[in-house]
Each structure stands twice: as C-alpha cells, then as structure tokens.
Amino acid sequence: MAPGFRLPASRRKMRIHVLSVGQENGDSMNREGKPIPGPWVFHLREEEGGTHRKLADAIQARVFPGDNVMLSVVRFEPNAAGRVHHHLEEQWGVLIEGSCVRIQGNEEAPMRAGSFWHTPSGVPRGLRAGADGALVLDIFSPPRPDYKQPGEGFGRP
Question: Can you name the CATH fold of 48-152?
C-alpha cells in the first residue's frame, strides 16, 4: 500500500488478497483473467466486493461502507420500482445507465443516464426504473447502519 494510505475501519476486517508488483496467479485474478489491483479498487459492473443486499424483488445492491460515507451500487431490472421510503442520511444518486423516474417528496422527475440528484435527510424518496432497467450509484452520509450488514429491504416507510 502507498505510504500514508490507511483503509477505512470497515475494510480492514475484510480478507482481501493484495497483488505484488508483477504478480500473476489464478488466486488474484478477476473473472476476465485480469489482475485485481488491491483492496481499495472496485468496479460498478463487477459482482465482486461490497455487502450484497436485496432491496426488493428485481432490485439488488452492493454496499461499500466507509467511515464517513457509504456508496451503494444498485441494479434495477426493467420496470422495477422501489417503494417510497425515508431515512436520516443525506443521499446523492447518479444514474449510470438506463432510465428511471426519481420520486422525491411529492415530485416525480424523469432521469436519463448521467442525471444525478440530491435528497436531504428525512425527505421521502423512491425510484421506478424504465423499460431498459437502471444502474444507480447512491452516496450516503453518514453511512446507513442498516445497510452495513447483508439483508433485505429499504429504509423506513
């Protein structure tokens, strides 16, 4: 690891093999046969890494908690809808691919790949994926305690 780099406490507990420079072996390769660079590198479209969580039928998340911020990579199958819910954590979201309708408070807004949004603490929120599904990157601050463990479900109704 680089001098001065320290993994967040939530990552120090994980057993992750770190490659040495030039190391190539089957234990340290991803499914495409490429070397895995280290415990601090992840990919939006890879299924490895993170805490897996089923938010609802047809909605799966991989959660990456840090000490102060949490990322959640959420895949919505075509036309899947997450129920409107709320939580205390501030939330930003980025629609990486697909399309959706973002629900926030009493408003609904169509989104396309590249759109992003901000939701303050306590505001009701939800999302309906379009016919092509959706891949969303959610950012929470502080990290959501209920998402640090595998499980099911959204926040409070």
Answer: Jelly Rolls (2.60.120)
